[in-house]
C-alpha cells in the first residue's frame, strides 16, 4: 500500500506543478525521491534502472505535462503506447490476486481456445485475469467478448521450437531474427510486468521464453503451460536451451500430456493436466437432422470430418489421398475439413519467390492436386474456420485426426464429448487419448491406405461404431471434464499465491 500511495503522490506532484518547464523539472526531481523510495524498496525495482522523460501534450487548448517512467533510456518506447503511458499505479481490485496470462499469437487454434475455457472456469471473486497476446487477431476479440481484459504486445517475440512449427516451417532465416529480438523482448516483457503488477504469470505456450525470463528477473511466480512437444531440430541445441529455460524459470509446469512432459527435464514441479472440454457447449444431444440440413447433408450419407484445416503437421495430405479408397468401398461418404483452407493462388504477404520456396505453399499445392477430383464431385469440402464445431461433430459419423507429428489432439477429446468414434495417428498425444479398438482406432501416421481401411472398418460396422461412441463419451467425462481439470490448475495458483 505504501508503494501505491507514494506513487500516487508523486504523480499528483508531477501533474500539478504548473506550466513552467523549470518549475516542472524541479517538482519532478523533488517527487522522484518519493517514487525512488517506494519503488526501490521492491526487490525487482532497481533505482539505477529508472529514468524519467516528459512530453508536452495539448488538451482542450491547454498545455499539460505528462510523465512516463520506464527502464533505462527506453522509458517512453517499447511499451504499448495506449496502455503503458502511466505505469505508476495500475488499477487493482481489492482482495483479489491478479494473474497475467501471456499468449503467443492472435490466430484461433487449440492453445487459445484451451486458455479461454480455463478462464471461463476461473473464480473471478478470487482472481483477476488479464490476457496479453503477442499478436493481434481474432482470438483477441474472443477473449474480450468473454469479458476478459485483453491487450496486445507486438514488441515481444516468441521463440518456437515445437514439433508443429519445426515440421511446417522451411524459412530458416527467421531464426537469426528471433535470436536478435530475444533480449529486447525480455526487456519489453519486464516493462509490461511492472505495469500490470501481477501476482502470478501464466504462460500459455512453450514458445514464451522471453516473458519467462522477464518474470523470473522480476521475481514473480510462473506457471508455464506446455501445450506442444519440443522438436529436437538438427542437433538438439535449441531444444536443450529451451528445456533448461523451462527448468530454471518455471515455478510450476503444466504439461497437457505425458508425451509433452517427457520432453522436459525431470522435475517434481511438473504436473500433467489434460486439456478439457465444456460439456455444456459440446452437447451431443444437439439435433442431428438440423445439423446435417445446415451443412446440406442428407441422413443417408456417411460423414467423415477432420478438424485442423490444411496443415502439413496435421496430415491433410494423407487424408485427402485416402478419400478415393474409402469411396471405392462406400460411395455415399462425404468428407469435411474445418480450419484454414489451402491458399493456392491467393495473395500472401511473402514475395513471390519466398512464397514458391515455402513448405506451406508447396503443401497447399500438393493437397489441391490430390483433392481436385474429390472436390469436383462434391465428396470433399473445405469449410474454413468454424465456430460451430459441436454442430459439425453432431453431423458427423466419424472424426479423423491423421497427424504426422506428435501433439495433443483437441479434436479427439471434443469428439469424445460428442460421442463420436475416432481414427487417429498412433503418435504421442493421440495415443494417450484414444483406446485402440475401444474408443476408436489408431493407425500408422502418413499412411493413406491404413487410414482408409480404418474409416471403412468403422463406417461399415454400425454396432462397433455405437460401442465406440459410448466408450469415448465415458472416457471424455472421466478425463476431460472442464470443472475437474480446471480445478487442478487453480489449485496450483492457490499453492503459489493463495486466494
Class of secondary structure makeup: alpha/beta
The percent range for helix content is: 40-55%
CATH architecture annotation name of the largest domain = 3-Layer(aba) Sandwich
Strand content: 15-25%
Could you say what the CATH topology of the largest domain is called?
Answer: Rossmann fold
What number of domains? Answer: 3
Number of strands: 15
Number of continuous helical runs? 19
Radius of gyration, whole Å: 26 Å
* Shape verdict: globular
Side by side, the strands of the main sheet go 5-4-3-6-7-8-9
Task: Characterize the structure shown.
With 499 residues, this protein is α/β, with parallel strands linked by helices. The chain folds into three domains: 2-71; 97-276 and 482-497, Rossmann fold, CATH 3.40.50.2000; 288-479, Rossmann fold (3-Layer(aba) Sandwich), CATH 3.40.50. The protein contains 19 helices and 15 strands. It has helices at residues 2-15, 21-40, 110-120, 138-145, 163-168, 174-196, 209-217, 237-249, 258-262, 288-294, 316-329, 352-357, 359-376, 389-394, 410-417, 430-433, 448-459, 462-479, 482-497; strands at 50-59, 62-71, 97-103, 127-133, 149-152, 200-203, 222-226, 252-255, 270-272, 302-307, 333-338, 380-384, 398-401, 422-425, 440-443. The strands form three sheets. It has a seven-stranded parallel sheet with strand order 5-4-3-6-7-8-9, with helices on both faces. α11 (316-329) packs parallel to α13. The longest helix has 23 residues, at 174-196. The two termini are 18 Å apart. The model is unreliable at 1-88 (pLDDT under 50).
Amino acid at each position: 500500500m505504501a508503494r501505491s500511495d507514494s506513487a500516487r503522490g508523486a504523480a499528483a506532484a508531477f501533474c500539478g506543478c504548473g506550466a513552467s518547464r523549470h518549475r516542472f523539472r524541479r517538482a519532478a526531481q523533488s517527487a522522484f525521491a518519493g517514487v525512488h523510495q517506494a519503488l526501490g524498496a521492491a526487490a525487482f525495482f532497481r533505482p539505477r534502472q529508472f529514468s524519467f522523460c516528459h512530453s508536452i501534450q495539448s488538451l482542450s487548448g491547454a498545455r499539460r505535462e505528462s510523465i512516463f517512467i520506464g527502464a533505462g533510456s527506453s522509458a517512453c518506447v517499447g511499451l504499448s503506447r495506449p496502455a503503458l503511458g502511466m505505469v505508476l499505479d495500475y488499477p487493482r481490485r481489492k482482495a483479489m490476486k491478479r494473474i497475467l496470462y501471456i499468449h503467443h499469437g492472435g490466430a484461433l487454434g487449440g492453445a487459445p481456445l484451451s486458455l479461454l475455457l480455463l478462464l471461463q472456469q476461473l473464480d473471478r471473486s478470487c482472481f483477476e485475469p488479464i490476457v496479453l497476446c503477442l499478436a493481434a487477431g481474432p482470438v483477441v476479440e474472443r477473449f474480450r467478448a468473454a469479458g476478459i481484459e485483453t491487450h496486445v504486445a507486438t514488441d515481444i517475440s516468441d521463440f518456437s521450437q515445437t514439433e508443429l512449427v519445426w515440421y511446417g516451417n522451411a524459412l530458416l532465416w527467421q531464426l537469426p531474427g528471433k535470436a536478435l529480438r530475444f533480449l529486447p523482448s525480455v526487456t519489453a516483457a519486464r516493462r509490461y510486468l511492472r505495469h500490470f503488477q501481477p501476482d502470478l504469470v501464466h504462460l500459455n505456450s512453450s514458445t514464451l521464453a522471453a516473458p519467462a525470463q522477464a518474470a523470473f528477473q522480476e521475481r514473480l511466480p510462473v506457471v508455464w503451460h506446455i501445450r506442444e512437444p519440443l522438436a529436437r531440430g538438427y542437433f538438439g541445441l535449441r531444444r536443450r536451451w529451451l528445456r533448461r529455460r523451462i527448468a530454471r524459470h518455471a515455478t510450476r509446469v503444466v504439461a497437457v500430456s505425458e508425451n509433452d512432459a517427457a520432453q522436459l527435464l525431470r522435475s517434481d514441479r511438473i504436473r500433467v493436466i489434460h486439456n478439457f472440454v465444456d460439456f455444456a457447449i459440446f452437447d451431443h444431444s444437439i439435433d442431428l437432422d438440423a445439423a446435417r440440413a445446415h451443412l446440406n447433408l442428407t441422413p443417408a450419407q456417411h460423414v467423415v470430418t477432420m478438424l485442423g484445416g490444411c496443415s502439413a503437421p496435421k496430415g491433410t495430405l494423407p487424408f485427402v489421398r485416402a478419400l478415393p479408397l474409402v469411396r471405392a468401398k462406400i460411395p455415399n461418404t462425404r468428407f469435411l475439413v474445418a480450419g484454414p483452407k489451402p491458399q493456392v493462388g491467393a495473395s500472401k504477404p511473402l514475395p513471390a519467390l519466398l512464397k514458391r520456396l515455402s513448405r506451406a505453399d508447396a503443401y497447399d499445392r500438393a493437397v489441391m492436386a490430390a483433392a481436385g477430383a474429390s472436390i469436383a464431385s462434391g465428396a470433399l469440402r473445405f469449410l474454413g474456420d468454424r465456430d460451430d464445431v459441436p454442430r459439425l461433430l453432431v453431423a458427423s459419423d466419424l472424426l479423423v485426426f491423421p497427424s504426422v507429428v506428435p501433439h495433443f489432439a483437441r479434436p479427439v477429446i471434443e469428439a469424445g464429448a460428442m460421442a463420436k468414434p475416432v481414427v487417429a495417428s498412433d503418435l504421442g498425444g493421440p495415443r494417450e487419448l484414444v483406446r485402440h479398438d475401444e474408443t476408436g482406432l489408431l493407425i500408422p501416421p502418413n499412411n493413406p491406405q491404413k487410414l482408409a481401411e480404418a474409416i471403412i472398418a468403422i463406417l461399415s460396422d454400425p454396432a462397433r461404431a455405437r460401442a465406440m461412441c459410448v466408450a469415448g463419451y465415458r472416457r471424455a467425462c472421466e478425463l476431460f471434464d472442464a470443472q475437474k481439470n480446471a480445478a487442478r490448475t487453480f489449485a496450483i495458483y492457490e499453492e503459489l499465491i493463495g486466494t
